[in-house]
Inverse folding.
């Protein structure tokens, strides 16, 4: 017994998976983050996202005790403990343990920047970088420095601020 999506004709073994597929064809995103306002179609993705705003790192590497916010990031990290690097860049000979990382790396060898900010026209190689950049244009500043109380739009900018020597830090 299988369940077929009437929109894209994909088949699924479980009815719940079919329902998820049908929802994926809509713009319905009922789960919205109260911190950054990002919205999600699936509760699971929403819950994973919420961890990005906390220090919770429930997934721990049994080899080095490093911990992660997402299970798939831990899975990828485990590959770093092996010598297996089967994916090789034909341009610079650098090798990688995952094909997707090689694909991202290949972008560094091109001038292509297909993702453009509609506000300032800055362009990016990857969509995730473009999306992160958009936060710099918003008034939302959910990340606060515990030392000086300055607010930041992205966690990475807060981290950079924290690790900048105090005498060169801008307050």
């Amino acid at each position: 017994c299988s369940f077929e999506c009437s929109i894209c004709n994909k088949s699924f073994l479980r009815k719940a998976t079919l329902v998820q597929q049908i929802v994926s064809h809509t713009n319905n995103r009922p789960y919205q983050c109260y911190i950054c306002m990002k919205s999600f179609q699936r509760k699971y993705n929403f819950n994973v996202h919420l961890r990005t705003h906390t220090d919770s790192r429930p997934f721990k590497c049994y080899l080095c005790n490093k911990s992660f916010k997402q299970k798939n990031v831990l899975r990828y990290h485990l590959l770093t403990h092996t010598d297996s690097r089967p994916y090789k860049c034909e341009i610079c000979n650098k090798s990688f343990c995952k094909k997707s990382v090689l694909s991202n790396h290949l972008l560094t060898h091109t001038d292509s920047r297909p993702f453009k900010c509609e506000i300032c026209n800055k362009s990016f190689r990857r969509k995730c970088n473009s999306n992160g950049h958009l936060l710099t244009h918003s008034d939302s500043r959910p990340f606060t420095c515990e030392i000086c109380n300055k607010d930041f739009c992205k966690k990475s900018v807060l981290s950079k601020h924290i690790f900048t020597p105090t005498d060169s830090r801008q307050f």
The first strand starts at residue 3 and ends at 4. The mean pLDDT is 87. The helical segments are 15-24, 43-50, 71-79, 99-106, 127-134, 155-162. DSSP finds six helices and twelve strands in the chain.
